[in-house]
């Protein structure tokens, strides 16, 4: 049967034909399983999407990658042609992401993850509040006919897909932590010293955990289980045409732009979950009352408000609440504003990334400190991943609670905000909890 692999090539000024239709809602994991790379998986509260193949791939490198990607995306959507306007849910989207920083040369396991890469899928299945939609795209001399044939073939194929048979986690043979506990303590102590000297206010230091797997990991399986274990999170999968898969279940949305409404959230300050309700309530109270965690959280709220304030007015900060996930609880504050003019979601992404929930304050000094101390490339970890539509609307997540995997190895990443009162061993333990979402899918 036909693979969704499309015309993954430079587009020039070619027309892009897009077709869409409503379909019966399938099990998205069954659809994802039969797609060839590049694949995308996306589960958010109101929309779930799986996509396969690439009718166009946009990439950009360097510090102006956000602006260059935005220009390429606008140019691409200008060339999309449909016989009649598609319903909102059937409209094509570009899916992809950015690396945490643009100034480093990518190291393994991130070699196949450039500074920015987005894909216009050849086949996209979207479950939205207004129905389930199949969308296909094609280029070339008979683009319209190719897109229509692709639509017909995939509509039939999706209707006849076998039931997805879930597997079991692959198991872990060996694990390697970077840094070691000793080097972690040294790193945190040096950050705390710099904070006490007044050179810094907060830095988020991360660790990586690499695992050799006993059996091959089935990515769709892992993504499905993440959805079951972390239903309040956003599950994502980004898989290039060749190279390892990047997947995760993040609680953190960087930004959502719809028209002139912009939503973001401050998420920082963490504590574990209790074994019993009493212990859990006690831990929640500890988090709510913790001066250290509230300070860490305040820094993020104020910085995000400031960053948003350059592009939005009427900024409203919601109540500070405790967000409970299966592995940890976080302090969380929603922030909403009205854009001062029509803006592209990538303008907001550029403005907000990295928030001090993954970078630090002041931003430049924090980024230099991260570069000095961390002995690995963050790649797309803690970076913006998401989608863009023809209006420049979109949603981007902060790609934490994530791993990159080639099937036989998996490298997980997690970080913790270091402030003046941070204790290296407590921060170390917090990070081990943050590895849990992915680790539990492997063992
Ligand atoms: C950097 C991570 O978490 C951030 C998000 C929520 C809470 C955080 C904290 O309490 O340190 C971190 O800022 C991560 O999970 O890798």
Automatic annotation (TrEMBL):
Q: What is one process in the GO biological process aspect for this record?
A: L-tryptophan biosynthetic process
UniProt EC number = 5.4.4.2
Q: Catalyses which reaction?
A: chorismate = isochorismate
InterPro entries, A to Z: ADC_synthase (IPR005801), Chorismate_C (IPR015890), IsoChor_synthase (IPR004561)
First-level EC class = isomerase
Cite the NCBIfam families for this sequence.
isochor_syn
Q: What is this protein called?
A: isochorismate synthase
Question: From which organism does this entry originate?
Answer: Halovenus aranensis
